[in-house]
Design a protein that fits this description.
- With 284 residues, the protein is mainly alpha-helical.
- 68% of the residues lie in helices and 6% in strands.
- It starts with 6 loop residues before the first helix and ends with a helix.
């Protein structure tokens, strides 16, 4: 028997300290909800989960970008729906003016409405924007063009629809004006000019339909992109959760076991610390 060193007490204290450390880690995991709170908990798991988190945040932002893109295409299509309505009205006016029952005064009144419609088309081409991003080019198209003509300056609006650099989508920007639709020669002030104008208006209607079809195709593309991003983000979040999150049932089981071991360790430390007192019995 010795009194200089209480080996049993040292051993009991060491084991109790190990159990206490496990309990602290379990409490940290249970209180935070994360299995990995620092690199030391799982270095490889931390590296993988941080990369996944970066991808998930990128996907979530791409979903917001895609929704903005859908809003942009809907804004452009809405403006062109009104242009279509004005072109159809203009065609009605041209056919009406081409009728031999109208005199020059009546045709002049019809042509006045035609001029107002063209002015409104020019205004729509100049002012239609999405968050100050112009959707059309109201300038003069190049010589010899055939509507619809892509804008000569910044022809595309580029959307970022993914979490990587390469995942982009371009929405075309077209000329949208009286000249851009080749309507500057439309004149319904006489019977002959009204007849000639019908074909030009028909061409403009077809050109606007082509642009609207492009907006519609882009919108459908973006809607499918959004659904894909949503599913991918969900699956990535699930995978990241399996790596990073605490399995509460399993961790509570471990904590309960360590808690019992800790209480037993406390009891053994008390017993070990009482061993040197037995020496006093020999000295009496």
């Amino acid at each position: 028997m010795i009194i200089q060193h209480n080996i049993a007490g040292i051993n009991s204290s060491r084991n109790k300290g190990i159990t206490e450390g496990k309990m602290k880690k379990s409490l940290e995991k249970l209180s935070s909800g994360y299995r990995i709170n620092r690199a030391g908990d799982d270095a490889a798991g931390l590296a993988i989960s941080e990369l996944m988190r970066s991808q998930i945040r990128g996907l979530d932002q791409a979903m917001r970008n895609t929704n903005d893109g859908i809003g942009l295409t809907q804004t452009g299509d809405g403006a062109l729906a009104e242009v279509h309505a004005m072109l159809e009205r203009m065609k009605t006016l041209a056919i009406q003016s081409a009728n031999g029952t109208y005199d020059s005064v009546a045709r002049g009144n019809l042509d006045a409405e035609r001029q107002q419609l063209l002015e409104e088309m020019d205004r729509i081409g100049q002012t239609t924007n999405f968050d100050e991003i112009t959707l059309f080019d109201a300038g003069d198209p190049p010589a010899g063009f055939v509507p619809p003509e892509l804008s000569g300056e910044d022809p595309d609006i580029t959307l970022q629809i993914g979490h990587s650099k390469e995942e982009t989508m371009d929405v075309p920007r077209y000329y949208m004006s009286t000249k851009g639709l080749a309507l500057e020669s439309v004149d319904i002030s006489t019977l002959t000019k009204a007849n000639d104008s019908v074909a030009m208006i028909d061409n403009a209607i077809e050109a606007v339909a082509d642009i609207r079809a492009g907006f519609g195709a882009s919108q459908n593309h973006l809607e499918h992109t959004y659904q894909n991003l949503s599913v991918t983000s969900e699956n990535m979040t699930s995978a990241e959760s399996r790596i990073r999150d605490t399995d509460m049932a399993d961790e509570i089981t471990s904590f309960t076991r360590d808690n019992i071991m800790y209480q037993a360790g406390n009891s053994m430390c008390a017993q070990a610390n009482s061993l040197p007192e037995m020496v006093m019995n020999l000295l009496r």
